[in-house]
Structure formats: structure tokens, C-alpha cells
Amino acid sequence: MKILILEDDPDDLRRIERLLAEAPKLQADVTEVSTLKHAMRRLEDEDFDVVLVDLAPPDSKGEGTIDALRHICPRMPVVVITSCNDDEFASRAMRSGARDYLVKGTVDAAMLGASLRYALRRHELFDEVRRPSFVDSLTGLFNRRGVNTFGKQILRLADRYNQPALVVFSDLDHLRTINDDEGRWVGDLALVEAADVLRETFQSPDVVARIGGDEFAIITLLDRDDVAEELLGRVEARLSARNDDGFRSFDLSLNTGWAIYEAGSKETVDEIIARADRAMRSRRDGLEGARA
Q1: 10 Å Cβ neighbour count for 71?
Q2: Residue 173: which residues within 8 A CB-CB, separation 6 or more?
Q3: 3-state SS, one letter per residue, for 104-135
Q4: Is the dihedral of CA 278, 281, 286, 289 positive or negative?
Q5: Which one, 11, 101, 119, 157, has the greatest CB density within 10 A?
């Protein structure tokens, strides 16, 4: 495994190298750099399997370091190893795209090796997304098989870090009417636009899928209680902006409901999506009842 280590503390670097040497089932070819600038140069010139990064080098940007690395190599798995034992900071790092978050002094050789192997395996699984079996051909989002495969990964992270996950269920409003009045190809364009709104709102580590004709599902980690309302507010704002452009004869709208997966609850992806679906239907019926 070719590993790029971004670490500016020589003592910490020696400890990490010792752990890598002792890690079972891991043969590591290690390159060390001490600044983000040097890390980005090496990533431009050379292929690595994984980046192991401290977020405290002199030119680091905190979790923005992950964004900078992924800008150079968007699909590069990044594992954070840091002295910062803070749940909120860890959540932000994971939402920025880190595959794992390890705290110095609490990690042994077996844990570090397992983390790196897991990060690489998850990276390989995401590579498989390019296969048609995981992707909806119309929108380019995950399909139902994709959301089950990669949604499980999100729920495992929720269990591991003892934090909740948000599961959103949406359907495109009035798709049948759009197909009947405008033609099926216009309905397909509406689905693509709705998918674009969801893709723009949620970030790359999140799982965004079209799971049926007009149905979408999203699974994402939560780092604070008000994130659900904030994210769904962004969806509504983006839909409103598209409706204001005047390019279509109908308004693009989504019926939305959500459910919270609590760490350790052992719900399956299908079960939590079904719960979000019921919440969506209840919310939609309530709005329709209020309008009546």
C-alpha cells in the first residue's frame, strides 16, 4: 500500500512509522511530507493508495486540508490522525470527505492497519459505482442497490462514532401530470433537475440515490441537531431558484420527509428509508389537508 503521510512533528512521524511497520496484514511503502504544499505537489506527480494526514501542519487549514487534498485527487481516500479529540471537529472532517478519524495516543498498530485497509476497500467500493449495477442511468445518482451498499457504510460510521445519521425520502411532485401534459421526455428532464438539486445540496461522502420512478433517498451523517432543517432548507432554496428562471411551464417541487438513525439502533437501510417514507407521506397529507 503506497501511503503519503502529512505530519510535521518528527516524534509523531516516527511513532506512526513504527505502528505501520508493526501493523498486521499491511505492507506499506511510505512517503513523508511536512507541509500541505508539499503533499499537494507529491499528489500531482505520483499515485498513492491513501493519504494519512495530521490537520496541524504549519500551512494546514484544519478540515479544509482535506478539501485541498481532494481537489488535487477527488477520489483519494484520506485518513486523519490528529491530537484533536473533539467529536464536532471529527464530524466536520468526516463530512469533508475523510474516510476515518484517529486520535493520536489511542491508536495501536492493529487499529491503524485496519483503518487504512478499510479506507482503501471503501475507496474500491466507490470505484464500483461506475458500474451500471450501482447507478441510475437517467440521473447518474445511486440506484436502490447503490443506496443499500453504500448506505450501510454511513450507518456503520454512525455506530462507530456514536452520532446520528439523517435519512431523507423525497418524491418529485406531480410527475405523472408532467408526463401526461408535457411528454415523458419533459418528465425525465424534471427528474434530472431534481437529482441535480439534491447532488448540489449534499456533499460527496453522502449517499444520494434515485430509488424508484419519482423517489429519491439520501443518507448522511449529522454533526448537530439542526443540520436536517438546514439541509432541507437549502433544497427548497435551490428549487425556488430554478423555478424563478421561467424556463418551464410547471414548478419543480419535492415532497420530503426524514428520519434519524440513532447510533447502535441496528436498523437496516431499508427500514430507515421506509420510516422516512412514512414521514414524507404524513407530512404531505398534512399539507394537503391544510390547503383543503
Answers
A1: 10
A2: 253, 254, 255
A3: CCCCCHHHHHHHHHHHHHHHHHHHHHHCHHHE
A4: negative
A5: 101
C-alpha–C-alpha distance, residues 197 and 213, integer Å: 17
pLDDT at 174 over 50: yes
Closest residue by Cα to residue 166 from 175, 180, 155, 177: 155
On the question of pLDDT at 232 being above 80, the answer is yes
Distance of alpha carbon 255 from alpha carbon 287, whole angstroms:
10
Domain spanning 134-291 has what CATH number? 3.30.70.270
Read off the C-alpha cell for 59: 500551512
**Residue closest to 65 by CA, chosen among 32, 88, 92:** 92
Residues 126-136 pLDDT 10s: 665 556 678 88
What is the fold, at CATH topology level, of the domain defined by 2-129? Rossmann fold (3.40.50)
Question: Sign of torsion, CA 96 65 108 5?
Answer: positive
Q: What is the pTM of this model?
A: 0.61
Residue 62: CB atoms within 10 A of its CB come to 15
Distance (Å, rounded) from C-alpha 195 to C-alpha 286? 25
Q: How far from chain centre, in Å, is Cα 186? A: 30
Domain ranges of the chain: 2-129, 134-291
